[in-house]
Amino acid sequence: AQRVTQPEKLLSVFKGAPVELKCNYSYSGSPELFWYVQYSRQRLQLLLRHISRESIKGFTADLNKGETSFHLKKPFAQEEDSAMYYCALSGLLGNFGNEKLTFGTGTRLTIIP
Amino acid sequence: GAGVSQSPSNKVTEKGKDVELRCDPISGHTALYWYRQSLGQGLEFLIYFQGNSAPDKSGLPSDRFSAERTGGSVSTLTIQRTQQEDSAVYLCASSRTSGGAETQYFGPGTRLLVL
Known about the structure:
Strand content of chain B: over 45%
Order of helices and strands of chain B: EEEEEEEEEEE
Order of helices and strands of chain A: EEEEEEEEEEE
Distance between the termini of chain A: 41 Å
Number of helices of chain A: 0
Helix content of chain A: under 10%
Structural class of chain B: mainly beta
Strand content of chain A: over 45%
Number of strands of chain A: 11
Radius of gyration of chain A: 14 Å
Shape of chain A: globular
Radius of gyration of chain B: 13 Å
Number of strands of chain B: 11
Structural class of chain A: mainly beta
Number of helices of chain B: 0
Helix content of chain B: under 10%
Oligomer: heterodimer
Distance between the termini of chain B: 37 Å
């Protein structure tokens, strides 16, 4: 079974301070990891995915297979980063693609001005 | 271009009634997914379509839930004999093809309230 754990439901950080949102996963195959974000009154949207190895809005995430983690980091938080963040996993399993996303329960990030 | 659209945006129904939720994916996207977002449960996968076929229905919570997709485009999620625990936001997503690394694009959701 695949599982994604986000241990923090709420996280408050001062503007300009570093941010780290934790994500751990459990999966027997080769996972694809994603971070999705939902800003207030907006739809859920992709922030970044590990396969792209990109930095979006200053956020990065490194897949650590040894620790089965995919923590999201940003060195200097901005007020517009306040949102709900979901870590998600998909992968290839069985005879057909297991492309469904398994989400963590989410972390609500609040940036304090 | 237009993103994923869903209708209705809000639905209030009485316990025991049937409801239909509609999803219009991004044009040309062959894969379509339904998820449910409820308080305390987070985002749960319901069903996945590749074209018109549904190779993965593993997330449907009971036989009161069904979904179909015709013409490889629009999908309808039907909940029969609704119960209060069905109250949630139902999200639809589509992706260009099937594949674990494909980005899924989400619709705005349908907020369902069962009284």
